Amino acid sequence: MRLLTSRRSDGAYGCGVTEDSADPQKMVEWFMVESGAKHLRQHKRVSQADADLQAKVLAYHSGPDRPVVRRFLAINRPGKA
After folding, report:
1. In its keyword annotation, does this UniProt entry include Cell membrane (predicted)?
2. Based on the structure, what is the number of domains in the chain?
3. In a domain, 18, yes or no
């Protein structure tokens, strides 16, 4: 999938597309980057090719509202597994 290739070339070390098992109409794209700061830098340097690709992917979205974007941060707590 070209979108995942784009994510990897932009620094993601893990990425994928997942289907919601409770609702197969919901798909989730996820990717992991080194830090929140690196993710913010990604937003500032989106190439035109990547912007065009993201627009093509967005065309598959259905519904009146834009897709929900959520950001999850890893929390490393000393002494906790």
Report:
1. yes
2. 1
3. yes
Average pLDDT over residues 71-81: 73
Question: In this structure, is residue 71 part of a structural domain?
Answer: no
Single-letter amino acid, residue 11: G
Q: Which amino acid is at 34?
A: E
pLDDT of residue 47: 87
Instruction: List, for residues 37-59, the tens digit of each pLDDT value.
Output: 888 888 888 889 888 998 998 99
Measured in degrees and rounded to the nearest 5, phi and psi for residue 59 equal -65, -20
Q: Residues, the chain, total?
A: 81
